[in-house]
Specification:
Layout (H helix, E strand, L loop, with lengths): L9 E3 L16 H9 L5 H11 L7 E3 L9 E2 L6 E4 H31 L8 H19 L14 E3 L3 H34 L6 H20 L9 H13 L16 H11 L7 H17 L11 H13 L1
Helix pairs in contact: 1-5, 3-4, 3-5, 3-9, 5-6, 5-7, 6-8, 7-8, 7-9, 9-10
This protein binds zinc ion.
Zinc ion binds next to helix 5 and helix 6.
InterPro entries: Peptidase_U49_Lit_pept
Protein name: Peptidase U49
Length: 320
């Protein structure tokens, strides 16, 4: 574990003996599983019951291969959660971009202004790389292309000097994946029986399943906040960036069997009861601005309002 104390030079996490797959996201697959299994202190027991009583599959499939992005789901027949390698790459890239843009464009200039000195010098290079990586993420929705780990930020191979811009997003990424897995887990233990029974379900029924899956997933994760709260921020941010990553597939938020994406985002944030000055509001604004720019949605932005006010104002604009 020498890399933990490494200050300079390249960090390379790849170990062909333990990491499957061809995309640099492979180095985090084990971490995803470990984080999910330990969602909260009693979750290993809940999982054991879900395996025994609900027939939840004991394994999670990762679909490897050079394919364009396909979202996660749970197989109805064998109650097995399926994640796709390209989707996981997409998710990490989106999270890295949102986080780095937030830190370098919003947070650090704010600190410089507040303290009246240049605590953080301008860092155009990493900002440009983050914006470029966001373009790469979006391109994966359309077609697969290789993630260049020598030139683009990634979790497998990076400079120790830049580790914060990689390892912080790693924390949010594993929480975002945990949110997705807890969501699918809820479908597995609560909804698939009804779907399997062959009874007719109205579309509003599906939407209620989805609401319950989001809300139970958040409850499960909040149960896992340590008494010293050290993991609370990554959990809160992870859930929000996980939901933000769903916006970039199209210019509208309508879905047949899911609630509108902006409703899922608002419901999640409100369920977590975040204070007015929480980072999540600003992070959500960065995510929504990227979506605005992607599709030329022409939202009205203002600096007169607090981040929270601006957030709700944008939600209103999305609804109009
Ligand atoms: Zn779902």
């Amino acid at each position: 574990m020498n890399w933990i104390f490494q200050n300079t030079g390249l960090i390379n996490h790849y170990n062909p003996k333990i990491h499957s797959g061809n995309q640099p996201i492979r180095v985090l697959h084990h971490m995803n599983l470990w984080m999910f299994q330990n969602t909260h202190p009693n979750f290993p027991n809940e999982l054991a019951i879900a395996f025994d009583k609900n027939g939840l599959s004991k394994t999670i499939d990762i679909v490897f291969g050079e394919n364009k992005v396909q979202g996660p789901f749970i197989r109805v027949q064998n109650k097995r959660i399926v994640l796709q390698e390209s989707f996981l790459s997409y998710l990490w890239c989106v999270i890295h971009s949102i986080y780095v843009i937030y830190i370098l464009k919003i947070e650090q200039p704010k600190i410089n202004q507040r303290t009246g000195k240049e605590v953080y010098p301008k860092n155009e290079e990493d900002l440009e790389k983050a914006e470029e990586l966001f373009n790469y993420a979006k391109s994966l929705i359309v077609a697969y292309s290789e993630w260049n780990k020598n030139s683009q930020p990634n979790p497998e191979l990076y400079l120790a000097q830049k580790r914060d811009l990689i390892e912080q997003p790693n924390c949010f990424y594993t929480e975002a994946v945990k949110f997705i897995l807890c969501h699918e887990y809820t479908h597995g233990i609560k909804h698939l029986e009804i779907l399997n029974s062959g009874s007719e379900i109205e579309l509003s029924g599906y939407i209620n399943f989805e609401r319950e899956a989001d809300s139970d997933a958040i409850d499960l994760m909040l149960k896992g906040v340590f008494p010293n709260k050290i993991n609370e921020l990554p959990i809160q941010i992870g859930i929000v960036v996980g939901l933000l990553s769903m916006f970039y597939f199209k210019a509208t938020t309508d879905a047949k069997k899911h609630p509108k994406t902006e409703d899922r985002l608002v419901d999640a944030i409100e369920q977590m009861e975040l204070p007015d000055n929480h980072d999540v509001w600003g992070i959500a604004l960065v995510g929504l601005r990227l979506w605005d720019e992607q599709f030329g949605l022409d939202f009205k932005w203002t600096i007169e309002k607090t981040d929270k006010e601006q957030f709700y104002d944008l939600i209103k604009q999305i609804k109009e």
